[in-house]
Structures are given as C-alpha cells and as structure tokens.
Amino acid sequence: MRGKLDAVRDYNLRADISVNELVEQMRGAWGFTAEKIVNGIEILRAMVSDQRCVKFLSFPACIVATGTRGILREMVKRRLVDVVVTTCGTLDHDLARSWKEYYCGSFDLNDAQLHRKGVNRLGNILVPNESYGLIIEEKMRELLDALWKEGVHEISSRELSCEMGRRICREDSILYWAAKNEVPVYVPGLTDGAVGYQLWMFSQNHKLKIDILKDEQELNDLVFDSERTGALVIGGGISKHHVIWWNQFRGGLDYAVYLTTAVEWDGSLSGARVREAVSWGKVKETAKQVTIEGDATIILPLMIASLVSDRNPQ
Question: What are the domain boundaries of the chain?
C-alpha cells in the first residue's frame, strides 16, 4: 500500500449535533458500513441535483408498515424522485394506515394466540384484521364502484395507484402525495396483495381489465426519453428488478444506490450487489454506485434526513 493514508478518527458527539455534522464525522470515523452510507448520501445528492436525470425509487411493502413510511412519503412529497416502482403490499399498507392504526409488538409473541385474537404479525408490527383486510375491502369497493360508474372498465397499475391517492388515501400517505405531485407509481405484481384480491373480487361481477402492458409502455418511454437515469433501490424482488430491467435497454443506470439485508452467496436478486448489475448492462460501468448492507428502517431515515437538511423545505 503506497502513499499517505488517512487516520481513523473517533466520533465526537455533542448534545446539539446536527444530522449533517454526524454524517460528516462518519466520513472520518472510518468503519465498515459508515463509509458506504456517506458514499450513498453523496450519490443521492448528485442524483437529486441532476435536473436531466429521471430518478427511480423502488422498495418492498414491508417497510410501509413501519414508521419508514414517513421517509418514503417525504421523498415523494419533496419531489426527490420521479418514478416509484413497488409491490402490491405498498398499496395495501398505505391505504390501510390512512384510516386505521398499526401497533408496536415483538418478534417473540405467540402467533397462535395472535391468530385467535384476529391480529396479524409483520415482524414486530401488529396489524389487526380491522386495520387491514376489512378497511381495504371497504375503501377499494367504494373506489371501484365509483370508477365503474364513471365508465372506467380498464385500468393500469399506475392509474389505479393515482386514483387511490386522489380518492381514498389521506395526506399522511405516499399515494396521496404521488398523485398530488404527479409521481407515477407502478406495481408490476398488482395481484399479489389485498388490493389485488379486491380487484379480482370486483371482476367476478364486472368485466374489469388490468392493463399491465400500458405500465410497461410508459416505463419504456420514461427510460428512452431520459438523458440520464438513477435509482435508490431498497430491498429486492420484483420492484428492484423492474427498475434495473428497463434501464438496461438504455445502457444502464447512471446512478445506483442499493440498500439491502440479503446475502449475495445464494445468487438471489435481492442480495445481488450493484457490480452484478454492471455485468448485465443494467448499471453503467461508469455509474456512481454503492451497495449498502443494513436495515432500511435504520439507514434510510439517516440518509434522507441528511439529504434534505441542506435543501429548502417544501
């Protein structure tokens, strides 16, 4: 190893330390994931500031059941992203939590007892039946009846997400702000959740059609009309793959920040690091990129708080 090396410095905490000061100390308090978080914030800052870059956000539904929903909402509300790709459970949880409460629990509760009490456990989040399936059925039936009467017999996932945000979600929701700010929300796995089930139920008595290919055409147009693209990819699965899949057709993402808890050695998409996507042409060889290993409910609030602290509030 040649050249002068920078020394590792300790954190120096104060009662009045700001988020940005803490992040700046992370740059010097060299240690494991800290470096990657700082790099990720810098890449996101460059991506958000790039006016010619179409910015994608993908995430799994599970974090929408947590307080991290508020971070995702702020990203959409502040127009830090241009496109959202997610799973059906996001529609479920965002709608349900607009009207009902989820509760703090534990990973170690007796699940058989919870089942008998009509309470569902999502990690250490408790979701009573009345806060999930029942309210989703009520609100989706209301929405679908209204749309049908207005002559809407065919709809894409982006259009459905927009109508949900406009009509049956409140201001504390991601979908509300996505609709208000005209940020498209795409759900390629639309039938995999409670909202999807309500679509199927409604279709039993109505010839409702879901136009998934319309979503794909719009995604095609988005990537081919863009000068540059970037993505904050949280977790994995279909939402992650849909973002990187479409971007391969324009030569790959110019910015990529992955945040994951999955392992790489099992070959899963969720655990695949950015470098693997480079081999497929889904991320450019020259892209500003980093993979951060860690829990999004811890790391994402820190990163986005730092990102917005030097921007004017909206």
Answer: 45-99+135-303
Parallel, antiparallel or unpaired: strands 103-104 and 125-128: antiparallel
Q: How buried is residue 59: exposed, middle or buried, by Cβ count under 10 Å (0-12/13-18/19+)?
A: buried
Q: Which residues of 172-204 are buried (b: 16+ CB within 10 A; e: fewer)?
A: ebbbbbbbeeebbbbbbbbebbbbbbbbeebee
Structure tokens at 2: 């040649």
Predicted TM-score (pTM) of the model is 0.95
Backbone angles phi, psi at 280, to 5 degrees: -90, -10
In terms of CATH architecture, what is 45-99+135-303? 3-Layer(aba) Sandwich (3.40)
Active site positions, annotated: 282
One pLDDT digit (tens) per residue for the chain, 314 residues: 567 888 888 888 899 988 888 888 888 777 889 999 999 999 999 999 999 999 999 999 999 999 999 999 999 999 999 999 999 999 999 999 999 999 999 999 999 999 999 999 999 999 999 999 999 999 999 999 999 999 999 999 999 999 999 999 999 999 999 999 999 999 999 999 999 999 999 999 999 999 999 999 999 999 999 999 999 999 999 999 999 999 999 999 999 999 999 999 999 999 999 999 999 999 999 999 999 999 999 999 999 999 998 665 44
Query: What DSSP assignment string belongs to 220-285?
Result: HHHHHH-SEEEEEEES-HHHHHHHHHHHGGGT-EEEEEEEE---STT--TTT--HHHHHHHTSEEE
Q: How far, CA to CA in Å, does 83 sit from each of 9, 160, 242?
A: 39, 15, 12
Give every CB contact of residue 253 below 8 A, 6+ residues apart in sequence. Answer: 56, 229, 230, 231, 244, 247, 277, 282, 283, 284, 287, 289
